[in-house]
Specification:
The protein is α+β, with helices and mostly antiparallel strands and 118 residues long. The chain contains 5 helices and 4 strands. The strands form 2 sheets. The protein has a two-stranded antiparallel sheet. Strands 2-3 form a two-stranded antiparallel sheet. 18% of the residues are buried.
Length: 118
């Protein structure tokens, strides 16, 4: 039997996440250290969908840290032009990719918007 390609492994991991079956967690955990970045990312995304508790392991793969600093907000050239101004921000984590519908649904169901920090 031919070994699955990284593309197939990654998409299979994602399908396991979509099932909502928490027994898939044990199948997916070893793939967090796969040689393929694609497989690692999709496995982490699937584990996140399944409610995997190890946030550090998932955040390392799904998020990127933005250091504290200053940035320019606004543009005179943008639609509805506004005066550019300097903004200072603290460090934060941001998703590497757009949030999946299942992730957003879990956030809503967990009453995430009731927490002031969100």
């Amino acid at each position: 039997m031919k070994r699955p390609t990284n593309l197939k492994k990654g998409h299979f991991a994602l399908l396991l996440g979509e099932t909502g079956d928490e027994t898939a967690i044990d199948l997916l955990k070893p793939h967090l250290t796969d040689d393929s970045r694609h497989v690692r990312y999709l496995s982490a995304l699937a584990l996140d969908m399944l409610g995997f508790e190890d946030r550090k392991a998932l955040d390392d793969l799904l998020m990127v840290r933005v250091d504290a600093g200053e940035f320019t907000m606004g543009s005179e050239e943008a639609f509805g032009a506004e005066t550019p101004r300097k903004i200072e921000t603290g460090a934060f984590l941001i998703d590497r990719f757009p949030v999946a519908n299942t992730q957003y649904r879990r956030f809503i169901e967990a009453a995430g918007y009731r927490e002031r920090r969100y």
